[in-house]
Design goal:
By secondary structure, the protein is of the alpha/beta class. The chain has helices at residues 19-22, 72-77, 90-106, 108-116, 122-132, 153-164, 178-183, 194-200, 220-223, 243-251, 284-304, 336-346, 375-382, and strands at 10-13, 30-32, 40-43, 59-62, 82-83, 145-149, 168-172, 189-190, 203-206, 230-234, 255-260, 273-275, 324-331, 351-359, 362-369, 387-392. The chain folds into three domains: 1-88 and 284-313, NAD(P)-binding Rossmann-like Domain (Rossmann fold), CATH 3.40.50.720; 90-275, NAD(P)-binding Rossmann-like Domain (Rossmann fold); 314-396, ACT domain (Alpha-Beta Plaits), CATH 3.30.70.260. Helices cover 32% and strands 20% of the residues.
Length: 396
C-alpha cells in the first residue's frame, strides 16, 4: 500500500516528550506510549538496543543530541534515518559548564561540605567559619586560559562564554564544519592538536561525541601534559575520559578538580571529583527545544521525505513541485541513479525534479515525477540491488 500523507501517522513515544514539541506534529497524527505498528518512534533516554523495532517504523527521532541509546547501524541497514536535535540543548549545557568552572575555581563543593559539618550557636559557627575558610580559597576566571576540545554548537557557546568572562580561549576540533567556524568568536585561538590545548589551558572543557576515536580521549598520557592544578570538565560523554587516570592525577596533585555529568563508582567520594546526575540538557527550555526540532524533522520526513539532522543519512531537501514523490534510501554504490531513472523511464514517468546525496555508505534520493506511480513501479525500485527502502509520497 502506498505510504500516503492522507493515512493517519502513528508515533510511538518511549519517554515523556515535551507537549510543545508534540504540538508541532500534524493534527492527524496519533501519538502515544502504547502504539502498535508506529510510523516513527520519538525517544529521549530509553535504551532501544534490545527493543524489537517494528517493520512499520520509518524514522527514529531522538529528542536530544546523543544517539548511543539507539541501534543506529541496525536501522541504517533497514534504510531508517535516525534524527537528533543538535544544538537545541546547547545553551543548557553551556550554562552547566560555566557552573562547573566556578565550582572548580572556587572549591564550592568542598566549602559546602565543610559548612555542613559545623555545629553550635551562631558565634561558634562564625569562629569555625573564619578559621576554616582558608582551606577553600580559590582563583578568579579573568586572565585564565580555557581550552575547548570540540567546537560544535555547544563548544562554540562555551568558548564565547569564556571570552565574555575575560578568559583567554584556545580551541581544537579536527572536523569543524563551516557553520561552526562562522559561529566561533574571532578571539578564539585555534590549536593544532589536543595536546596543544592541554599544555596551555587552566580549564579544559570537552565537547566531542563518543566514537572509537574519542574513547578515553583524555587518558594518563594526555593528563601528563596538562598544566599542574588544571580543572578538567566533561559534559560530553562518560567514555571520553579515563576515570582511573583522572583519580590518579587528582591524588597526585596533577589535576585540581574533575567536574563531570556522569557519576561513576571510581569517582564517588573523591574530594577532587564532582559528578552531576546527567543534568546537561535537564532544563525546561532544552527539553522543549529538542522536542520541537525533532518533531518537525520527523514529520517533514514522513510527509515529504526531506532529511535534516539525521546522524546516519545525508541532509536532503527538495521543494515540492509535483504531487508525486518517491523517496529511496540505498547503499552508496555506482549507477544507482541510472537504474532508478531507467525504471521510471520504462514506466513512462517523466522526472520533474531529482536530488541525490550520499554520506559514507548511505545514499538518499528524492524524485518528483509528473504523474502517479503504480505499486509495480515501487516494487521494481525496491528490487534494485542495494536499495534499502522505498517510500511513495503523493500529495492528495
Amino acid at each position: 500500500m502506498p505510504d500516503t500523507p492522507a493515512r493517519p501517522r502513528k508515533i510511538l513515544t518511549l519517554n515523556a516528550i515535551s507537549a510543545r514539541g508534540l504540538a508541532r506534529l500534524p493534527r492527524h497524527y496519533i501519538v502515544g506510549g502504547d502504539i502498535g505498528e508506529p510510523d516513527a518512534i520519538l525517544v529521549r533516554s530509553a535504551d532501544m538496543h534490545a527493543m524489537a523495532i517494528p517493520p512499520s517504523v520509518k524514522a527514529i527521532g531522538r529528542a536530544g543530541a546523543g544517539t548511543n541509546n539507539i541501534p543506529v547501524k541496525q536501522l541504517s541497514a533497514r534504510g531508517i534515518p535516525v534524527f537528533n536535535a543538535p544544538g537545541a540543548n546547547a545553551n543548557a549545557v553551556k550554562e552547566l559548564v560555566i557552573a562547573g568552572m566556578l565550582i572548580g575555581a572556587r572549591n564550592l563543593v568542598g566549602a559546602l561540605k565543610f559548612v555542613e559539618t559545623l555545629s553550635g550557636n551562631d558565634e561558634a559557627l562564625h569562629r569555625a567559619t573564619e578559621a576554616g575558610k582558608k582551606a577553600f580559597a580559590g582563583i578568579e576566571l579573568p586572565g585564565r586560559t580555557l581550552g575547548v576540545i570540540g567546537l560544535g554548537a555547544i563548544g562554540s557557546l562555551v568558548a564565547e562564554a569564556g571570552i565574555k568572562l575575560g578568559m583567554n580561549v584556545i580551541g581544537f576540533d579536527p572536523a569543524i564544519t563551516v557553520d561552526a567556524a562562522w559561529r566561533l568568536p574571532s578571539q578564539v585561538k585555534r590549536a593544532e592538536s589536543v595536546e596543544a590545548v592541554l599544555r596551555q589551558a587552566d580549564f579544559v572543557s570537552l565537547h566531542v561525541p563518543l566514537i572509537d576515536a574519542t574513547r578515553d580521549l583524555i587518558d594518563a598520557a594526555r593528563i601528563a601534559v596538562m598544566r599542574p592544578g588544571a580543572v578538567l570538565l566533561n559534559f560530553a560523554r562518560e567514555g571520553v575520559v579515563d576515570n582511573a587516570a583522572v583519580i590518579e592525577a587528582l591524588d597526585g596533585g596533577k589535576l585540581h578538580a574533575y567536574i563531570c555529568d556522569f557519576p561513576a563508582n571510581a569517582l564517588m567520594g573523591h574530594p577532587g571529583a564532582v559528578a552531576f546526575p546527567h543534568l546537561g540538557a535537564s532544563t525546561q527550555e532544552a527539553e522543549e527545544n529538542c522536542a520541537v526540532m525533532v518533531a518537525e524533522q520527523v514529520s517533514d520526513y514522513l510527509e515529504n521525505g526531506n532529511i535534516l539532522n539525521a546522524v546516519n543519512f545525508p541532509n536532503v531537501e527538495l521543494a515540492r513541485e509535483s504531487a508525486y514523490r518517491i523517496a529511496i534510501a540505498n547503499a552508496n554504490v555506482p549507477n544507482m541513479v541510472g537504474q532508478i531513472s531507467a525504471i521510471l523511464a520504462a514506466a513512462g514517468l517523466n522526472i520533474h525534479n531529482m536530488v541525490n546525496k550520499s554520506r559514507g555508505d548511505m545514499a538518499y534520493t528524492l524524485v518528483d515525477v509528473d504523474s502517479s506511480v503504480s505499486d509495480a513501479v515501487i516494487a521494481s525500485l525496491a528490487a534494485i540491488e542495494g536499495v534499502l527502502s522505498v517510500r511513495y509520497l503523493p500529495v492528495e
